[in-house]
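FORM 12-B: Structure-to-Sequence Request
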């Protein structure tokens, strides 16, 4: 398939560009798409006149076929616009506005072609890879997507692929202190502009962590299979969206609907039967060492403490209380000794019948 497209590429060669751009509907965010002197696909993001993501590489590498990484020309189609709203059954807003401008940037070479589709909203940018049919099953060994960030940014992040996964405390540091970081990673630039890097529509694909390869340049490190391959997939395919939320302040990140808009629509159909609920839980006090999961003088899941939580939940309109640490097995090195847990025997200071009756 790669070589079969060469005559068509030669015919369209006069149309190849060196750069293209697409703006957010309000004009504040601009994405510049280009190829380097070596034909390496790349992009840049500006907020007003400030560059918030410096020129950053795009591309994929495969195990057995030529990679989508260099020698490419750019053929950018016209910018398409979308302005609609849709309804979600729960969340901060019932009606979500989906207003964006879209550019499908096609990169072509003698080895093949692929599209990077950019959607630019007023609250940020999403982009994904779209690889056409004809290759059958492929194995991705590396995704080259970079986020070349300003070195003077402040970051809030947790370590990527650590033993505690997403339960680390967030760290506030400069970029130089980061090696691997889970997403979302949030940044504040000296100008006050805030960014948050994450992904959307993660379906049948590897999640990524941010790997700082050189100063300020973070590459998407896809989580590998045991054999080192990152993604095993059938063409045609599209990657998840790589997302960059952009706001002049932190509040704008909280109010962003970027990831909701880029996620796949609900496939369940009518979800009016779903009854969303909120709960509180007896476990956060353990995380901050005010209480313990195991037995002792500051045991968290006691009858008295659980009833206090139940009363608070009832008074404040919560639907449930999650209790952790009520059953035997939490003493000692419980993290590595799951076989000692009992799910029927409570600690002496937890009366499960009294709790249920209350």
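FORM 12-B RESPONSE
SEQUENCE OUT:
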């Amino acid at each position: 398939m790669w070589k079969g497209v060469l005559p068509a590429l030669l015919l369209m060669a006069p149309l190849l560009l060196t750069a293209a751009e697409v703006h957010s509907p309000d004009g504040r965010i601009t994405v510049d798409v280009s190829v380097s002197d070596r034909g390496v696909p790349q992009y840049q993001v500006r907020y007003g006149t400030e560059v918030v993501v410096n020129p950053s590489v795009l591309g994929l590498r495969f195990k057995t076929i030529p990679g989508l990484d260099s020698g490419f020309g750019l053929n950018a189609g016209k910018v398409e616009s979308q302005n609609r709203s849709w309804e979600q059954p729960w969340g901060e807003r019932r009606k979500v506005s989906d207003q964006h401008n879209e550019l499908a940037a096609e990169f072509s070479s003698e080895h093949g072609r692929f599209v990077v589709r950019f959607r630019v909203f007023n609250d940020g940018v999403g982009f994904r890879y779209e690889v056409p049919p004809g290759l059958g099953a492929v194995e991705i060994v590396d995704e080259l997507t970079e986020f070349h960030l300003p070195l003077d940014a402040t970051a809030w992040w947790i370590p990527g692929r650590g033993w505690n996964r997403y339960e680390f405390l967030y760290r506030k540091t400069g970029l130089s202190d980061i090696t691997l970081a889970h997403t979302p990673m949030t940044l504040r630039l000296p100008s006050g502009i805030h960014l948050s890097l994450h992904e959307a529509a993660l379906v049948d694909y590897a999640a990524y962590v941010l790997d700082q390869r050189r100063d300020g340049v973070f590459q998407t490190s896809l989580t590998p299979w045991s054999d080192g391959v990152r993604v095993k997939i059938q063409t045609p395919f599209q990657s998840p969206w790589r997302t960059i939320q952009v706001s002049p302040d932190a509040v704008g990140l909280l109010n962003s609907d970027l990831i909701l808009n880029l996620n796949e629509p609900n496939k369940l159909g009518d979800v009016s039967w779903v009854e969303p609920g909120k709960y509180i839980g007896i476990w956060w006090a353990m995380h901050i060492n005010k209480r313990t999961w195991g037995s002792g003088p500051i045991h968290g899941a006691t009858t008295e403490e659980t009833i206090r939580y139940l009363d608070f939940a009832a008074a404040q309109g919560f639907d449930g209380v999650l209790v952790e640490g009520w059953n035997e097995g939490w003493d000692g090195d419980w993290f590595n000794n799951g076989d000692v847990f009992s799910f029927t025997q409570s600690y002496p200071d937890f009366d499960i019948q009294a709790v249920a009756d209350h």
